[in-house]
Amino acid sequence: MTQPISPSGPLSGAWRPMGARDLPAVMALATAMHPDCPERADVLDERRRLCPAGCLVLPDAWGKPGGYVLSHPWRMDRPPALDTYLRRLPPRVDCWYLHDIAISPALRGRGAMHDALRILTRRARDHGVGWMALMAAEGARPVWAHMGFEPMTGVPADITASYGADACPMRRALFTTTNI
């Protein structure tokens, strides 16, 4: 059973744009929550600078980042390898690529993941793409499958392998109806 991600549903308002000042806390979360997928801070900051609309933080009770999203428009058949610079966004894209999302255990269970996916769905549609894509890693494939993402083929093996032995490229169609 997949969880509906309604682009017209109410947003909690908790997610906010990621700023440069958030990077140390984002790096701390990334290191703690994704120990087998390390990335350099400047690689993550490049994504923030290239696509501010796709990079968000979820403040905790003290206003510090307790979650984050890094995403941007891209091409499904060539997702960026882990810990690599993008340099620029491609001129022709076919998906909104969810590079990373992490939510601290203290903030889970409140709908933040669904809110983030609603926001990113709107960004994707505003950008004129009909797909969201990601690389499920570190055992996350069942979570993404539950959210309606399906494995996809055609991604070069070296890119997939950069995310670890269990990595799986996945995608989800973004429909024009609110029942997705």
UniProtKB/TrEMBL annotation:
Pfam families, sorted: Acetyltransf_1
UniProt KW Transferase keyword: yes
CDD domains named in the record: NAT_SF
Any one GO molecular-function label of the UniProt entry: acyltransferase activity, transferring groups other than amino-acyl groups
Domain of life: Bacteria
Keyword Transferase carried by entry: yes
Alphabetically ordered keywords of this record: Transferase
Chain ranges of the N-acetyltransferase domain: 13-175
Protein name: GNAT family N-acetyltransferase
Species of origin: Komagataeibacter swingsii
